[in-house]
Amino acid sequence: MARDMTDKEILKMELAQLKKEVDTPRTPVNANCAETVAYVEELSPNDPLIKGVSDEKNPYKGDKGGCIIT
């Protein structure tokens, strides 16, 4: 798309994008980090990667055998 455009058209498109971005509300990074940490800590008790999966709910446990690499 940009290959078919002149330099002037590309600059107009970039200017239009920058005008959209200038109205985007900004928040400080430390505020975003604090919100992210709170969100992760709130969900961590139910996270199977942190807590683990019980044997009853784990479809990969059981009598299926295993894989042996020789």
UniProtKB/TrEMBL annotation:
Record key words, sorted: Cell membrane, Lipoprotein, Membrane, Transducer
Keyword Cell membrane in annotation: yes
A Pfam family per the record: G-gamma
Cell compartment(s), UniProt: Cell membrane
Residues passing through the membrane, by range: none
Gene3D superfamilies for the chain: Transducin (heterotrimeric G protein), gamma chain
GO molecular function, one term: G-protein beta-subunit binding
PROSITE patterns: G_PROTEIN_GAMMA
Subunit structure: G proteins are composed of 3 units; alpha, beta and gamma.
Job description of the protein: Guanine nucleotide-binding proteins (G proteins) are involved as a modulator or transducer in various transmembrane signaling systems. The beta and gamma chains are required for the GTPase activity, for replacement of GDP by GTP, and for G protein-effector interaction.
Family affiliation: Belongs to the G protein gamma family.
Protein name: Guanine nucleotide-binding protein subunit gamma
Organism: Collichthys lucidus (Big head croaker)
